[in-house]
From TrEMBL:
Keywords: Amino-acid biosynthesis, Aromatic amino acid biosynthesis, Cytoplasm, Transferase. Its EC number is 2.5.1.19. Gene3D superfamilies: Enolpyruvate transferase domain. Catalyzes the transfer of the enolpyruvyl moiety of phosphoenolpyruvate (PEP) to the 5-hydroxyl of shikimate-3-phosphate (S3P) to produce enolpyruvyl shikimate-3-phosphate and inorganic phosphate. Phosphoenolpyruvate binds at K20, G90, R118, Q165, R340, R383. The keyword Transmembrane helix does not apply. This is 3-phosphoshikimate 1-carboxyvinyltransferase. The keyword Cytoplasm applies. It comes from Natrialba asiatica (strain ATCC 700177 / DSM 12278 / JCM 9576 / FERM P-10747 / NBRC 102637 / 172P1).
Length: 429
């Protein structure tokens, strides 16, 4: 599907979708448990991949409205009877790779072309160091993967600057091993708030995991069980960034975002970023609402070390702002569904935006740019697509985003939300 956005003013109420990061963890953690109702779950292409994996390991996932009724495998995953297809979901593949290491036999994991190009090597090495067998069929540290268990726990070291999901995967699995896990970080941890999310979800299911001087640890022999058998997923601040940015660049009358309760999500930083750039922002944390109105935006410097998913949104804000917006500590953002640093530089360039790219930074020269409409490629990346669509709200002329249906990965109702706020949108299938 291609979508064309023409210049529009937006106003009204937008509701945040549930958090993708929390939903992934909640579905898999419920798989480790016995029976759980996961409420307010995001049912997207990515989270459905995690649900399918739980079923491959012997659980069941039934959708009842916005709730998921999950009967888990109670910490003892079956050897899958078929290949686990993770689709485009890097989170699914990394988290369930460690789950596969608990099964008494071999599991095969694969995904689409994009996912089969993403690095998994450090996690495979960690599983091997713990006594399992974990290999890449092509010998390049990328899927397809073959993982054979079971592991019983122990000590392991792993880099922290490639993906925090490796640490999350090991913590989730480590709680049901015999000996537990001690994880030593070989390098500084990037995207650290995502591990904080993991610790928060584990605690909600009665599992004790903790930070240590060297990294993280989780005791073995624990049982997963949510209080009252239920867990509620909070709103997603990665997704909140889009209506928030839309209001900051294209709303004179204001946009209110509902479902913005505080949580461990690092992407709550977007509220402060939009405020620093010059929009009018009021976050009522108790009510879980954010009100935003457009202002004269000015470029700022932002480290995305802990908030990689925000880079596309901030890049679009920088394209509208005066002066320079510099995004630093961004090298790990190159290893997402696509290289988001280059993708945003190239596609914003198509729309007339001047940028400077280094290996670990992206600078947007808003003051030297004039946004004009054009045809841009969403790169099969939901976050790139949504960020480019925002640019279309204020670019001169129409902006066509090719391959826009990939928003289903995290925000299936994104274009409906924009349309409800008053954006002019045409779809072409």
């Amino acid at each position: 599907m291609n979508v064309t956005i023409t210049p529009s003013r937006v106003r009204g109420l937008a509701r945040a979708p549930p958090s993708k990061s929390y939903t992934h963890r909640a579905i898999l953690v419920a798989g480790y448990a016995d029976q759980t109702t996961v409420r307010d779950a995001l049912w997207s292409a990515d989270t459905q991949a995690t649900a399918r994996a739980v079923e491959r390991f012997g659980g069941t996932v039934n959708r009842r409205g916005e709730a998921l009724e999950i009967e888990g495998f109670d910490g003892r995953p079956d050897v899958p009877a078929d290949v686990i297809d993770c689709g485009n979901s890097g989170t699914t593949m990394r988290l369930v790779t460690a789950t596969a290491a608990l099964a008494d036999g071999a599991s095969v994991l694969t995904g689409d072309e994009s996912l089969r190009s993403r690095p998994q090597g450090p996690l495979l090495e960690a599983i091997t160091d713990l006594g399992g067998e974990a290999t890449s069929t092509r010998g390049n540290g990328q899927a397809p993967l073959v993982v054979t268990g079971p592991i019983s726990g122990g000590r392991v070291s792993i880099p922290g600057d490639v993906s925090s999901q490796y640490i999350t995967a090991l913590l989730l699995a480590g709680a049901v091993t015999e000996d537990g896990l001690e994880i030593e970080l070989e390098t500084e941890l990037k995207s650290a708030p995502y591990v904080d999310i993991t610790l928060e979800v584990l605690a909600a299911f009665g599992v004790d995991a903790r930070k240590t001087e060297l990294g993280f640890a989780v005791d073995g022999g624990q049982t997963y069980s949510a209080t009252g058998g239920e867990y509620a997923v909070p709103g997603d601040f990665s997704s909140i960034s889009y209506p928030l940015a839309a209001g900051a660049i294209a709303s004179e009358d204001g946009v209110r975002i509902d479902g913005a309760q505080p949580s461990a999500q690092g992407d709550t930083a977007i509220v402060d970023i939009v405020d620093r750039m010059g929009a009018s922002v009021d976050w009522d944390r108790d009510a879980g609402t954010i009100d935003v109105t457009a202002g004269e935006l000015e470029g700022i410097e932002v480290s995305v070390e802990d908030t990689p998913d925000l880079l596309p949104t901030i890049a679009t804000l920088g394209a509208v702002a005066d002066g320079e917006t510099r995004l630093t500590n961004a090298e790990h953002v190159r290893y997402k569904e696509t290289d988001r640093v280059s993708a945003m530089a190239d596609e914003l360039g198509t729309l007339g935006v001047e940028t400077t790219e280094t290996q670990d930074s992206l600078t947007i020269h808003g003051g030297d740019s004039e946004l004009t409409g054009g045809t841009v490629n969403g790169r099969n990346d939901h976050r790139v697509i949504m960020a480019l669509a925002l640019a279309g709200l204020v670019a001169e002329g129409g902006t066509t985003v090719v391959g826009a249906d990939h928003v289903d990965v995290s925000f299936p109702g994104f274009f409906e939300m924009l349309s409800d706020l008053g954006a002019s949108i045409e779809r072409e299938r």
